[in-house]
Request: fold
Amino acid sequence: MILPTPLFEAKSEYIHCKTTLKKNAETQIWSHILQKCRKNQRMSYSFIMFFIHQYSNFYKNVQSYDQFEQISENRREDFEKCFEKIGYKFLYWLCKNFRDNSYFRLKNEMTKDEVHRRLLVLNIAAVFLSSKAHPKVTLISSILFDQRQKMPQNYGDHLKFYKQPGPVSTLLKGLIRWLVHIHYNPKAITKTEYSTLT
Reply:
């Protein structure tokens, strides 16, 4: 199975994240990389993709990634500075393979196509979350974050603009709702709910 992988601009950052984080459980090293993620969108994206690639191993029946889960819990403050609470919870649930009723729960009986579709959606989520590290507010970053690149107090009010007909597609609106759903409801999203978004 071919996983979505940074191949161009973020290739070197992804390789750096992958080789460094897999070999080191020391929190100082993780803190150093998270500091880079706060100022570099490509590094931020690569960091999230590293977690997505670890999550993809649940398809092969790997039970859990306790090491990464423990590090994310221990460095929660650093994670939230980088990605806000919504991003921290996204990374946390990747380590847990989400909940049993989640569309994103990987199972070994799934086809490669079914797994790949989920990974592509998560890849798009990584782009949105990593946009927080961009030095300026962009259209993409303004969807999940406010003008200060912070998580809005109320996503209902913040997303009113995107509820109007226009350039934002139904799939994009579904992705936004799903990310917000992860933040407010740890049960993530069910297959039935997901099917109504596409």
In short: Confidence is low (pLDDT under 50) at residues 186-198. Residues 76-96 form the longest helix (21 residues). Residues 11-195 form one domain.
